[in-house]
């Protein structure tokens, strides 16, 4: 997705002003000239200035303001991209009850199917890869990963 | 550097766990680099969660070997399919592909691996010699000099990492802004935490990096822009490859100057903060053509430019660690990640590291030698098995990487907050990359933000708020003037380009940048 500079520029300038405003609300320490607001204020000014520069240079562009031709792709790829987002959000929301193995296998299998992998490959690769990861992170690296309903089946 | 330090460093690097890390990193880097669209920085980003649980030296050795191998393996899809595996290979992809079209695919790959390894070894020598000397020199540096070095690193990265310095500046500002979230480095006040306990601890650079380099690249790969790569990958006319390293010694005898010039260029350019191996390869290829006796042969599968650029590439990769290790100022995204890992391990990079614990930086440099030496046998195997690596379908690789992104972001602090950060960073990274905003300055800004702020505040406390103090010490003055010169030159060039652009034609939508290693 491409966005014209004449839209990005004003957005960045406004964001810069917002950062400066946010920095001005930070409490100052008595007797300290350069405090917690210094760097954020400088960043806000930089964002605002660069936003104006980009916005002005964008005025000469003739392309569309928002171009979504990137996503005029195969339906399957579009759905796969959507699943990569939605699937990971589901993972965040249901990681504890599902556990890593079940979530990992389910997420990977759907993604592989959407990207055109064959079923024998999916049912082999997804569980093997997820269990290898699980044992490496949980067993060797001692990361505490939720096991979920498969807890009884795993050592 | 004393012989005892060298031996002690060698002893450390020859330990079993370090050697396993180097070998594992090399095989992993080879695989990732050979797949078009998967970059060396992405490979490094995905490794960081693993390094969290490793001892410092194997962790850094893992990053060193995977990066060196990924950058070199990027030549494989470049030579065989005309798709550079990494932007560092983009400078000479046309040349190596022209060689493949003439039925010399094996020769193109052999040149890539052989001269990359040679360039990398020479770059490691430069690092070994100059590192301790520079560290000794910079022991007298105070917060004033370190402030300017941080500014220089940030500035050059923003300037050289894209076509548009304003967009590079925005990327940098975004990285710096992310670094300000959490508790203020001096007063301990919460900044931009929005009342969130997780944000009070700051935003870890690891999920940001995984999102921006790995997740965003997957989104791009699934879009129409990535489909073009897949279409080329599915072609049936893949070339045949035979006899690795055949004739490379003959080329070495014929073009010794190209090798020396390429490595010298790579070593000197790579050492500049923000430049790295990508730019070194482009410049080396241009210089080779300029001084060649047969410039008309360039672009037709001529080995001369290929030798020079590919040597510069890996030599620059090694010397990019000079500012990172000696000053603690990373020059590019990969060294920014490595500096982050060093901090995470309690090994603050900088001149003191060379003085207080000289064996550790020596061992890190030694790991460069081993990683580059490994390029010869692994390169041999890679050239023979190049087609097999390229045959792994994206429908298998992409889901694997996504699960690794999730797990890596979770494992940093064992919280799902990191996964959320990774997702947001991935979407922002995708939008930035598609609209011409380079991503490497974001990571540099994130890592260097606290360094910049801490040294500025400290300097101001010493000088009681007198800004002219930044120009009072000789080295600080020199660095400050250099920073001002770079800044003015950038503004002048941007204005000049804008003036010329306005005279010729209205500018189109921003081009795709190639800053992600």
Output the keywords:
heterodimer; A: 155 residues; mainly alpha; 2 domains; two-stranded antiparallel ribbon; 5 helices; 3% strand; flat; B: 517 residues; two-stranded antiparallel sheet; disordered C terminus
**Global shape of chain A:** flat
Using the alpha-carbon principal axes, give the shape of chain B.
globular
| Strand and helix order of chain A | EHHEHHH
Largest sheet of chain A: 2 strands, antiparallel
Roughly what is the average pLDDT of chain B, rounded to an integer? 81
Radius of gyration of chain B: 22 Å
Structural class of chain B: mainly alpha
Task: List the helices and strands of chain B in order.
Answer: HHHHHHHHHEEHHHHHHHHHHHHHHH
Estimate the helix proportion of chain A, in percent: 55-70%
Low-confidence stretches of chain B: 231-237, 505-517
Q: Most extensive chain contact?
A: A-B, 73 and 66 residues
Helical fraction of chain B? over 70%
Poorly predicted runs of chain A: none
User: Mind telling me the C-alpha Rg of chain A?
Assistant: 24 Å
Report the β-strand fraction of chain A as a percent range: under 5%
Q: Which strand order do you get reading across the main beta sheet of chain B?
A: 1-2
Average pLDDT number of chain A: 88
- Strand elements of chain A, count: 2
**Number of separate domains of chain A:** 2
Q: What proportion of the residues of chain B form beta strands (DSSP E)?
A: under 5%
What would you say this structure looks like, in words?
The complex is a heterodimer of chains A (155) and B (517). Chain A has 155 residues and is an all-alpha fold. Chain A contains five helices and two strands; from the N terminus they run βααβααα. Chain A has helices at 5-24, 38-58, 75-98, 100-114, 119-140, and strands at 2-3, 66-67. Chain A has a two-stranded antiparallel sheet with strand order 1-2. Chain A is flat. Chain A starts with a strand and ends in a 15-residue tail after the last helix. In chain A, 35% of the residues are buried. The mean pLDDT of chain A is 88. Chain B has 517 residues and is mostly helical. Chain B has one domain (3-136, 146-239, 253-504). Chain B has 24 helices and two strands. Chain B has helices at 3-13, 16-34, 40-51, 56-73, 75-81, 93-101, 105-137, 143-160, 165-180, 197-200, 205-222, 224-233, 248-254, 256-270, 276-291, 303-319, 321-327, 333-344, 351-356, 359-391, 394-411, 417-434, 440-462, 474-504; strands at 182-183, 190-191. At the A-B interface, β1, α1, α2, α3 and α4 of A face α9, α11, α12, α21 and α22 of B.
């Amino acid at each position: 997705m491409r966005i014209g500079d004449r839209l990005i520029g004003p957005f960045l300038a406004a964001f810069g002003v917002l950062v400066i405003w946010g920095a001005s609300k930070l409490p100052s320490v008595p007797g300290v000239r350069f405090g917690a607001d210094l760097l954020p204020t400088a960043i806000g000014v930089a964002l605002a200035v660069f936003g104006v520069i980009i916005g002005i240079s964008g005025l000469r562009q003739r392309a569309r303001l928002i171009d979504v031709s990137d996503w005029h792709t195969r339906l399957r790829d579009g759905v796969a991209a959507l699943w990569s987002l939605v699937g990971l959000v589901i993972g965040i929301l249901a990681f504890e009850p599902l556990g890593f193995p079940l979530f990992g296998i389910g997420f990977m299998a759907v993604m592989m199917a959407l990207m055109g992998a064959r079923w024998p490959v999916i049912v082999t690769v997804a569980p093997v890869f997820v269990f290898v990861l699980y044992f490496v992170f949980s067993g060797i690296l001692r990361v505490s990963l939720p096991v979920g309903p498969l807890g009884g089946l795993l050592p | 550097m004393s012989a005892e330090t060298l031996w002690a460093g060698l002893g450390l690097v020859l330990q079993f766990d370090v050697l396993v890390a180097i070998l594992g990193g090399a095989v992993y880097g080879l695989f990732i680099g050979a797949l078009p669209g998967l970059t060396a920085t992405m490979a490094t980003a995905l490794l960081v969660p693993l390094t969290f649980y490793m001892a410092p030296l194997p962790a850094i050795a893992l990053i060193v070997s995977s990066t060196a191998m990924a950058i070199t393996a990027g030549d494989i899809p470049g030579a065989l399919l005309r798709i550079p595996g990494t932007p560092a290979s983009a400078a000479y992809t046309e040349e190596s592909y022209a060689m493949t079209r003439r039925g010399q695919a094996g020769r193109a790959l052999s040149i890539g691996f052989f001269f990359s390894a040679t360039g990398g070894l020479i770059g490691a020598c430069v690092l070994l010699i100059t590192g301790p000397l520079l560290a000794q020199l910079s022991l007298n540096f105070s917060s004033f000099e370190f402030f300017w070095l941080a500014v220089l690193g940030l500035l050059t990265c923003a300037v050289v990492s894209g076509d548009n310095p304003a967009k590079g500046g925005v990327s940098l500002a975004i990285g710096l802004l992310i670094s300000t979230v959490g508790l203020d480095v001096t007063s301990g006040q919460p900044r931009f935490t929005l009342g969130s306990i997780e944000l009070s601890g700051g935003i870890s650079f690891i999920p940001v990096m995984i999102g921006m380099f790995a997740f965003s690249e997957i989104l791009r790969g699934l879009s129409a822009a990535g489909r073009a790569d897949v279409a080329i990958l599915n072609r049936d006319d893949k070339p045949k490859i035979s006899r690795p390293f055949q004739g490379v010694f003959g080329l070495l005898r014929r073009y010794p100057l190209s090798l020396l010039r390429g490595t010298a260029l790579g070593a000197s350019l790579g050492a500049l903060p923000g430049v790295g191996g990508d730019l070194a390869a482009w410049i080396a290829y241009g210089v080779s053509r300029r001084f060649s006796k047969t410039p008309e042969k360039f672009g037709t599968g001529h080995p001369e430019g290929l030798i020079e650029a590919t040597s510069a590439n890996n030599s620059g990769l090694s010397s990019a660690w000079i500012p990172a290790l000696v000053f603690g100022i990373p020059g590019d995204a990969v060294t920014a990640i490595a500096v982050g890992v060093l901090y995470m391990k309690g090994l603050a990079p900088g001149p003191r590291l060379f003085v207080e614990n000289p064996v550790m930086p020596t061992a890190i440099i030694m790991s460069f030698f081993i990683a580059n030496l490994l390029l010869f046998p692994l390169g041999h195997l890679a050239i023979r098995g190049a087609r097999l690596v390229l045959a792994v379908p994206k429908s298998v690789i992409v889901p694997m990487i996504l699960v690794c992104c999730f797990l890596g972001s979770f494992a940093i602090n064992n919280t799902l907050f990191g996964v959320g950060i990774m997702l947001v960073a991935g979407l922002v990274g995708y939008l930035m990359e598609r609209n011409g905003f380079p991503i490497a300055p974001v990571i540099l800004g994130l890592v260097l933000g606290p360094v910049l702020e801490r040294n500025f505040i400290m300097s101001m406390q010493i000088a009681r708020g007198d800004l002219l103090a930044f120009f009072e010490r000789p080295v600080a003055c020199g660095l400050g003037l250099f920073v001002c010169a770079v800044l003015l030159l950038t503004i002048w060039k941007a204005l000049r380009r804008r003036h010329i652009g306005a005279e010729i034609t209205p500018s189109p939508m921003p081009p795709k940048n190639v800053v992600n290693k």
